[in-house]
Amino acid sequence: MNNKKTVIITGGANGIGKETAFLLHKNNYNISVVDIDKKAGSALASGFSSEDFLFMTGNISDINTLDEFLKKTINKFGGVYALVNNAAVSTPEFNDDLAKWEKVMAVNLRAPFYLSKKCAPYLKKQRGAIVNIASTRALMSQANTEAYSASKGGLLSLTHSLAASLSPEIRVNAISPGWIHTGPEEYSEKLSEEDHSQHLTGRVGRPSDIAEMVSYLISSKAEFITGQNFIIDGGMTRKMIYC
Questions:
Q1: Parallel, antiparallel, or unpaired for β 129-133 and 30-35?
Q2: Quick one: which of 21, 38, 209, 213 could link to 57 by a disulfide (CB 3.0–4.6 Å)?
Q3: Is 148 one of the catalytic residues?
Q4: 3-state class (DSSP) for residue 131
Q5: Residue 143: its pLDDT value, please?
């Protein structure tokens, strides 16, 4: 075991999770990632040394997967300093398929709750932090996003509830991203000028915009911040639009 602090990232093989893993590793943390995407996880692992990185393939809707992942993390690194609940799934259908609803809730809400509780004893020892990656969908909606929006709204409530329950040793905050371009680089060429200009900042978001806030929130610089939700959306939730 090395002397670095360890950060767990769920869904860390792609997009925001991947960018966060690279940034936090650059900032001298051990990184432990669980993701259902084995191919992307293997590609991610190639960018790290085995000494300060762990990857496990798994579906976090399964409680046994979460238990196994945490056990492997503790066995390898000895503790946990921060937890980033990033993994999420969505379903576009508006129907009465409860199996799809329950799948979204299991990944987006139940897993963050369960993993936060299981990590709490280790986080307390290091006066660590939890960051939940929510969404602006918790605050505003498009049609047919009921399960995803509800799960992210629940995650915001879970954030301030955990902040109260785990204080003062553990700080718990959320980030609500807006439109973050997480696709392949070549797809970015298909983003139109209108896509960018509709944002008050003049561009669509990047994974690094979220990763930088995660890095700040788990650091000692943010030790007076807990129970909060940080909206990072280029100003879209503050923009009046009249047809």
A1: unpaired
A2: 38
A3: yes
A4: strand
A5: 87
CA distances from 39 to 3, 20, 45, 68 (A): 29, 18, 10, 20
User: Can you tell me which residue has the tokens 């932090």?
Assistant: 129
Q: Tell me the C-alpha distance between 92 and 101, whole Å.
A: 10
Which domains are assigned to the chain? 6-238 (3.40.50.720)
Look at residues 201, 139, 148, 121 and name the one whose alpha carbon lies nearest to residue 175.
Answer: 139
d(CA 31, CA 220): 18
Q: Which of 29, 148, 187, 216 is catalytic?
A: 148
> Sign (positive/negative) of CA torsion 118, 122, 125, 129?
negative
CA atoms of 173 and 224, how far apart (whole Å): 11
In angstroms, the CA 208 to CA 27 distance is 14
Closest CA relative to residue 34, chosen from 114, 152, 149, 129: 114
Return the residue matching tokens 């799960």.
151
Give the separation between CA 96 and CA 230, rounded to whole angstroms: 32
Q: Mind listing the pLDDT tens digit for each residue in 21-76?
A: 999 999 999 999 999 999 999 999 999 999 999 999 999 999 999 999 999 999 99
SS3 for 108? helix
Number of H helices, E strands in the chain: 8, 7
